[in-house]
């Protein structure tokens, strides 16, 4: 198996046809077809379905595509690490962000990177937290922001902030209390709109409720922040989230946030890197910059409910 075969395969999948991939790669289509055939013979599986409209990945092809992307990225990172200078880090860095964090961090981080490290290309990918660990382990992302649930020992971690979770509902909802806070029991007694069990705030809420002898009984599961906000505005229920993802709606008075007590709920936000894949100088520079931006947003009150660690 050769790196060029991986590049060819990824290009074919990305462009959806052998002819388009051949044009992009500047390779004759028969040669491209031959390399693909050799790759399939070596793996002993069919990677692509050929159709009149182009090509589609088989189940095996979808799995191999993810690995091929990760391998090609690590090769590019290795080349960049050898070539770049510690004083002027350059190259590409991919950072994975959970949906509920990107609203606070993404734009300030992109702006700071362009200003301080113009030779670094920062690629941000927004994902569910349950998917970020696998991408980090496989090398598809260099860094990922996650929430410390006691299961991150396999990664090198840099604590960033402690983020408080609030009870959030439509401003005129019948269960929107006039008080500024409510108990966790009161919050759990409402219909809650939350991510699935392996994503976002859900594991932390489940853990705190369990420790308090409480349980979640009526939950609507939605894994998209955009759809979750729409459900809140439609008064389908309330949620337990940090304020940052719904800050615009809170400021417009469409949603209302209340503090939770007895007990309160917070989560520890950390920056993770692989223990097995060395960081390039560029990735190390972005690690420092993420910490700097995080501290600044907390100090300026631009990351509501977050306290720097």
TrEMBL record:
One of its GO terms (biological process) is regulation of DNA-templated transcription initiation. GO terms for molecular function: DNA binding; DNA-binding transcription factor activity. It comes from the Bacteria. SUPFAM superfamilies: Periplasmic binding protein-like II (SSF53850), Winged helix' DNA-binding domain (SSF46785). The keyword Transcription applies. Residues 1-58 form the HTH lysR-type domain. InterPro entries: LysR_HTH_N, LysR_subst-bd, WH-like_DNA-bd_sf, WH_DNA-bd_sf. Keywords: Activator, DNA-binding, Transcription, Transcription regulation. Gene3D superfamilies: 3.40.190.290, Winged helix-like DNA-binding domain superfamily/Winged helix DNA-binding domain. Pfam families: HTH_1, LysR_substrate. Belongs to the LysR transcriptional regulatory family. This is LysR family transcriptional regulator, nitrogen assimilation regulatory protein. The lineage of its organism: Bacteria, Pseudomonadati, Pseudomonadota, Betaproteobacteria, Burkholderiales.
């Amino acid at each position: 198996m050769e790196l060029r075969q991986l590049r060819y395969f990824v290009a074919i999948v990305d462009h959806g046809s052998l002819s388009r991939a051949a044009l992009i790669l500047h390779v004759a289509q028969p040669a491209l077809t031959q390399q693909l055939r050799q790759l399939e013979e070596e793996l002993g599986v069919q990677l692509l379905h050929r159709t009149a409209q182009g090509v589609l990945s088989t189940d095996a092809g979808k799995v191999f595509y993810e690995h091929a992307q990760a391998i090609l990225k690590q090769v590019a990172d290795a080349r960049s690490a050898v070539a770049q200078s510690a004083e002027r880090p350059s190259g590409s860095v991919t950072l994975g962000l959970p949906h509920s964090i990107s609203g606070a961090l993404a734009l300030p981080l992109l702006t700071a990177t362009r200003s301080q490290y113009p030779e670094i290309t920062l690629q941000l990918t927004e994902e569910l937290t349950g998917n970020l660990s696998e991408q980090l382990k496989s090398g598809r992302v260099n860094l990922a922001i996650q929430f410390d649930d006691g299961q991150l020992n396999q990664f090198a971690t840099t604590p960033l902030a402690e983020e408080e979770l609030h009870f959030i509902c439509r401003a005129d909802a019948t269960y929107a209390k006039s008080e500024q806070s409510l108990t966790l029991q009161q919050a759990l007694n409402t219909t809650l709109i939350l991510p699935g069990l392996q994503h976002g705030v859900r594991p932390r809420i489940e853990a705190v409720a369990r420790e308090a002898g409480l349980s979640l009984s009526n939950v609507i599961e939605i894994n998209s922040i955009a759809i979750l906000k729409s459900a809140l505005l439609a008064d389908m229920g309330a949620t337990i989230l940090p304020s940052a993802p719904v800050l615009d709606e809170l400021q417009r008075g469409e949603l209302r946030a209340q503090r939770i007590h007895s007990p309160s709920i917070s989560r520890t936000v950390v920056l993770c890197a692989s223990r097995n894949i060395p960081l390039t100088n560029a990735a190390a520079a972005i690690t420092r910059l993420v910490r700097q931006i995080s501290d600044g947003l907390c100090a300026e009150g631009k990351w509501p409910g977050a306290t720097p660690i």
